[in-house]
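Form 7-S
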Amino acid sequence: MTKFDKLRKKYLLSPNTCPFCGSTNISAEHAEFDDNYASRPVACEDCNKEWVDEYTLTHVIFNDEAV
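Output:
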């Protein structure tokens, strides 16, 4: 397991904290969408590290569906 694999696992468990320094002082840009994929740049305001969150379509709820 690489250093980045460990950071990725840590961040996926707690996506509201910086995977590098643990700060909650992170900011994210608006997501950009492309078919079933979306991404958004994220930055830590404390340690100045940057990364990209990636999203994929995993589920859909239809308007007529009982929730």
